[in-house]
Design brief:
The chain has 134 residues and is mainly α. It is built from seven helices and four strands.
């Protein structure tokens, strides 16, 4: 990189969209969801039951991201049906919750129409999960 490129003020706009803050993820999930070290299965804890439907969905999707980062899970994204199964929400509750979270740009979909939290929206999703509104 040349001196001219290093001094370019536009370089301040560059971010690594693939980087994630593991500490923020851990703090957001602590007391809500744990991950079984052997199976990678999500273990819903007492704090999870106190969350509203949208926050339950975000917590599960965030835990799946954590599982992939920890290499206890291979897939980050979950289908609508899988979200309902893991969260314990009725499909009629999970689907509108996912739609609302997509409209808030906290959740995205992959090529198979499964849901995940894009790294670029991770900080906003964590903020919403821990009590902040959007």
């Amino acid at each position: 990189m040349t001196d001219k490129e290093q001094d370019d003020p536009l370089r301040d706009l560059l971010v690594d969209a693939a980087s994630v803050d593991r500490r923020q993820i851990a703090e957001a999930l602590k007391g809500r969801i744990a991950i079984d070290s052997e199976s990678g299965r999500l273990v819903l804890t007492s704090g999870f039951t106190r969350l509203d439907a949208r926050r339950k969905i975000l917590a599960v999707l965030l835990a799946r991201k954590a599982g992939v980062l920890l290499r206890t899970s291979e897939e980050e994204a979950l289908s609508n049906k899988e979200v309902a199964e893991v969260t314990g929400l009725a499909p009629g509750t999970a689907a509108p919750g996912l739609k609302s979270l997509r409209e808030l740009r906290l959740v995205g979909q992959d090529g198979k129409k499964s849901y995940l939290i894009p790294n670029a929206h991770l900080a906003d999703a964590i903020h919403f999960l821990v009590g902040g509104e959007q």
